[in-house]
Amino acid sequence: MSLQKIAHVPPPTVGPSASVMEAVELMAEEGVGAVAVVDKDELRGIFTERDVMLRVVLKNRNPAQTRVSEVMTSPPQTAPDDMPLDEALNFLLDKHIRHLPIVDREGGIHGMLSLRNLLEHMVGYLQRELHSLDQYMANDGPGG
Amino acid sequence: MSLQKIAHVPPPTVGPSASVMEAVELMAEEGVGAVAVVDKDELRGIFTERDVMLRVVLKNRNPAQTRVSEVMTSPPQTAPDDMPLDEALNFLLDKHIRHLPIVDREGGIHGMLSLRNLLEHMVGYLQRELHSLDQYMANDGPGG
Hints:
Two copies of one chain form a homodimer.
Chain A: E1 13-14, H1 20-30, E2 34-39, E3 42-48, H2 49-57, H3 68-71, E4 79-80, H4 85-95, E5 99-103, E6 109-114, H5 115-121, H6 123-139
Parallel strand pairs in A: 1-2, 4-5
Antiparallel strand pairs in A: 2-3, 5-6
């Protein structure tokens, strides 16, 4: 299937010379935790709420005077649109990240996939499996 | 089963009069996105990296001069240690939150459960189910 079907499309984007404050304003408006940094239709980086905390606040940078290009992750991890769902999940967990830009071969970005998007897509499954696991741990499981 | 078995134990905590910067330093050290705000062994609130972005940076507050008590969520959503896993997941998704302090009846806090803790606990299940779902969507599913 297509990751774009469950991702945030179109992705929230800013230019590299946008300020951290502009990126934060966009994340607040869109209710998301990451923006793609795009220059001339090409993905240059990703900037997240964790970067706001660790690379701006913790480092005493001024959000109005710091450009996202100074504090973004570049190049970012990305995924093609046809990456299988289980691989996308594995990738997010392995890399300890929450967002994955969906890109084409030319470096254009078509969506932003979040861990939450994946979860919400399969919440019915998840709840049934967690219920089973809980019963198992309560009755028979190790240390149950 | 016990949520404490998969939660972050002991939970990272700060006092209500700690500064935002102190809370950020603790989150950075522990590699987490939320701290519990505790006063006299009682849970008073929760403060997260999203709060750093939306309630501090976006509002032009000074991280060194703002107390967490001014910008925390209080009272926080909480869960008892024996809440079933599926209920905990449902709760996190419904409330659109990522962290859940595990508390006893006296208001003491014993751990901090994150969405990531739940996911990592059941990653084997998840990958198999996502793989099946992906196959289904590719072959027979709606719009496949």
